[in-house]
Every structure is written in C-alpha cells, then in structure tokens.
Amino acid sequence: MQSKYVLSLDGGGSHLLIQLSVLACLEEDTGVSTYDLFDMMAGSSSGGMLACLISGRAVSASEIIRLIQREKLLENMMAGHWMNRLLNVLQIRPKYTGISKSRTLQKELGMLRLSSLGKQIFIPCFNLDSDQLEIFTNQTQPDFLLWEIADACTAAPAYYPPVKMEDGNWRIDGGVGMNNPGLAAYLHARQIWQETDIKVLSIGSGWRSFAFDGFKARAYGGVQWSAKGIASIILREKMVANVKMTEAVIGEHVLYINHPLKHFDLPDHMDSVNNPAHRQKALDIGRLWYAQQREKIGSWMSGRSASQSAAA
Q1: CA distances for 12 relative to 49, 151, 249, angstroms
Q2: DSSP string spanning 189-238?
Q3: Tell me: the pLDDT tens digits for 28-77?
Q4: Which residue, 11, 86, 123, 212, has fewest beta-carbon neighbours within 10 Å?
Q5: Residue 306 pLDDT exceeds 60
Q6: How far apart are alpha carbons 256 and 8 in whole angstroms?
Q7: Cα–Cα distance for residue pair 159/271, rounded to 1 Å
Q8: 274 has pLDDT over 80
C-alpha cells in the first residue's frame, strides 16, 4: 500500500528560511521538488503562506528561496508607514500596514482559488467574527482566493492588522491557536485517504529561549510580563506539548524536526529577514539541521522519493 505524505510547517515569521533550507536539501538529495514529494501541504502562520505558495505555484522550496533572496519577497511584505514606526515604540499600532503584504501575495498567487489546487492544503486561521479557529482546506466553502488565505494566516497580532476576506469576516494568524498543525493535518488526511498509510514530515522554525530572574519576577505585573515575552513562552510550551502528543498518538508516522536557536545567534524577532546576514544564518541553520537528520530523513522518505523518481 502506497503511503500519502503530508508536509507540516510551524509558524515562525522570517525564520521560515530555516524550513525552506531543510526542504531545499531534501530536494537536492531526492532530485524531486517539494511540491511533487508531498500530497498535502499544511502550515500555520508563515508556514501557511509557504503551503499556499508551494501548492498554488507548484514550486520547489529552492525556487521560493530565490524569490526571497532575489526578488525580496519577504521584505516587500514588511513596508510600514513612518507614523507606524513612531507609534510602534508604544505598541499602539501594528508594526506594518499590511497593504504591501496583501499586494505581494496577490501578485504571487493571482486569482487562484482553493478548488484549483492540485494538492491538498490545510491552513488554520482565527476568525474574529465567529470567535473561533477555523481550517481552510480544498473542501472549504466558499471557494476562497488563495492569496487572501495566505494574507489572513500571516496577520500576526502586533505585526499586521486583521484581514477582511471575501465573506466579509475578519481573520488573524491561526498560530494563536494552532502553531504546529501536524496532528490536526494528519487526522484530516486520514479522513481524505481512508485505509491509506499517512506519514507526516513536520518542520519547526526553531525554539526560542527565555531567561528570567525569579527574584525580580516577584514584582512583575502584566506590563512587565508582556514585555518579557510571556505570550511567546505560552505559545512555545503549547507547541512542545502538542509535539509530544502528536508523537505519542501517531508514533513513527511523524518525523518532527526542530531545535533551540539559542546557540546560533539568530535574533528572536520574527521579522529579521531584512538583514542579509540573518537570512544567510537561517539558511545555514536549515542545512545543519538537515545534515544532522539526513540519514533519518532519507530512510523515512525513501519509499516516496523512489516512487517519484520512477514516475519521473
């Protein structure tokens, strides 16, 4: 029985270059593009945007890296008004206007809709009007524009404003509730491909680390805890718990790749891509992760790459 392969990408802002670098190395080893290697693309936040780009444009991870490096794909999404930069000191406006992100994604994905995709997709967003997390799949109605989904799933609070989609509802980054969609994507794949072996390659964007002085923390109120990144700690720990649960539930059917970033001197902030040195460091980290896991990944993907090569 031939397996179905699911690619799941965590959220992580411009640290998505780490994930793309891992996938580019896999493409080099297999000679097959990411689009052709996987039957379903799942992603949250920046990972959801990648899922839209790979599925919609039927491209390789290597091609998206070139878009980022040569055509400044990510940098074009991060334009902000001068007033926003001033007010951002007090965090009373989103860091970026969101207009440039919308335009860039519309340019890249055009008028593609969910129904036009040749591969399955799985992307969480949070609907502000219905006050709940929702999942965009090929079966979702109405038949949304793909660029709008990519725009909404990357509307990270404090960085970008909410996105109003075709149905009139406002949405934000689904990472607020599901920043690691691996298990949920697996369960969705089971519904689509019943009686079929499902395998999930799940790639993170690096664990952030935090240092606290417990003595000083005794005096912290809401403002201090917020400034110290308590929301990021909560998100990280929810993800760690979800990863452990995923591995416990589906066992060898999932291969999760992620490591702490504290030894790599890569900035924690999720929009560090504007610095060429940071871009290169993220790509180097991805290559290192792949090298460390190469034998395991090769063994895990061997059946898939062999069948794809034969088909080619």
Answers
A1: 11, 15, 24
A2: HHHHSTTS-EEEEEE---B------HHHHTT--HHHHHHTTHHHHHHHHH
A3: 999 999 999 999 999 999 999 999 999 999 999 999 999 988 878 877 78
A4: 86
A5: no
A6: 9
A7: 9
A8: no
